[in-house]
Design goal:
The chain starts with a helix and ends with a helix. By secondary structure, the protein is α/β, with parallel strands linked by helices. The protein has 15 helices and 13 strands. This is Glutaredoxin-3.
């Protein structure tokens, strides 16, 4: 009897796999009343395989949570719908709606998010206080994440409300360097920051961790010409790209970094460069949308990865493969050609 129960528990703890958009939509409908955690993964990425193991363990600990893996490149309709640009990425669903997201192979953070969503709304007082303390620490880190931080609805590229759109336009007009946080991606931050800053609406702009205010305040500061003295200026993009492409003798602009490629093409080019023994640096374009878009125009090259030697574009994966096959790659990387 006990052995049978153990087998049943093990079966319930299995991580299901989704192979089509139709299957995914059906799953959202079937699991509407429970927490659904979806891992967008790729079989070529070792960090994804590791996170699948983490999911299996979490499934054993939380039998009432549904854990699913979906191969991102095999089901592009779903990946594009939810703006999956790298793997691993985890989405959390409740009532068929996305409620949270985690990008990257962060096992402790994944565990925390699962626990948070499982127990939301049913905390004993002491646990609630502890979580509130953790949230305040997190909000402090987020507001200090960059010299100028904008908490908004959506992203600077795709604002999802008129006030956020106006705020981004003002900051861009004044060439202000800022990072942003999409409050739609994290409900806990969205609600917690209102209390933390004692400011009930969005967008919210912070400089050096201090709240400056919302759109009306920023408009007043712009009108009084104080905005330029408060917020840090961004270097011109072309100057920045020149500096970045010359940061090392050999520079690779890719999805991910040396330790963790986040697309198949970037992984292949890393393997080729590593086989040469030449030292090189990388830049993760997923971390900086301005560089990601700007470099395409700067180099007149529309895709990634992009390889530069002494500030000059060599090309993408296909060019690098051709150079390797012809024996020309190593001399070029060493600056001999």
């Amino acid at each position: 009897m006990a052995a049978g129960a153990a087998v049943a528990a093990e079966a319930a703890a299995a991580v299901a796999e989704v192979g089509s958009a139709l299957q995914f939509e059906e799953l959202l409908r079937l699991k509407a009343k429970s927490l659904l955690v979806v891992h967008f993964w790729a079989p070529w990425a070792p960090q994804c395989v590791q996170m699948n193991d983490v999911m299996t363990e979490l499934a054993k600990e939380h039998p009432h949570v549904s854990f699913v893996k979906l191969e991102a490149e095999a089901v592009p309709e779903v990946s594009e719908k939810y703006e999956i640009s790298s793997v691993p990425t985890f989405l959390f669903f409740k009532n068929s709606q996305k409620v949270d997201r985690l990008d990257g192979a962060h096992a402790p953070e994944l565990t925390k998010k699962v626990q948070r969503h499982v127990s939301s709304g049913s905390f004993p007082p002491s646990t609630h206080e502890h979580l509130k303390e953790d949230l305040n620490l997190r909000l402090k880190k987020l507001t200090h994440a960059a010299p100028c931080m904008l908490f908004m609805k959506g992203t600077p590229q795709e604002p999802r409300c008129g006030f956020s759109k106006q705020m981004v336009e003002i900051l861009h007009k004044h060439n202000i360097q800022f990072s942003s946080f999409d409050i739609f991606s994290d409900e806990e931050v969205r609600q917690g920051l209102k209390t933390y800053s004692n400011w009930p609406t969005y967008p919210q702009l912070y400089v050096s961790g201090e709240l400056i205010g919302g759109l009306d305040i920023i408009k007043e500061l712009e009108a009084s010409e104080e905005l330029d003295t408060i917020c840090p200026k961004a270097p011109k993009l072309e100057e920045r790209l020149k500096v970045l492409t010359n940061k090392a003798s050999v520079m690779l602009f890719m999805k991910g970094n040396k330790q963790e490629a986040k697309c198949g093409f970037s992984k292949q080019i890393l393997e080729i460069l590593n086989s040469t023994g030449v030292e090189y640096e990388t830049f993760d374009i997923l971390e900086d949308e301005e560089v990601r878009q700007g470099l395409k125009t700067f180099s007149n090259w529309p895709t990634y990865p992009q390889l530069y030697v002494r500030g000059e574009l060599v090309g993408g994966l296909d060019i690098v493969k051709e150079l390797k096959d012809s024996g020309e790659l190593l001399p070029i990387l060493k600056g001999e050609n």
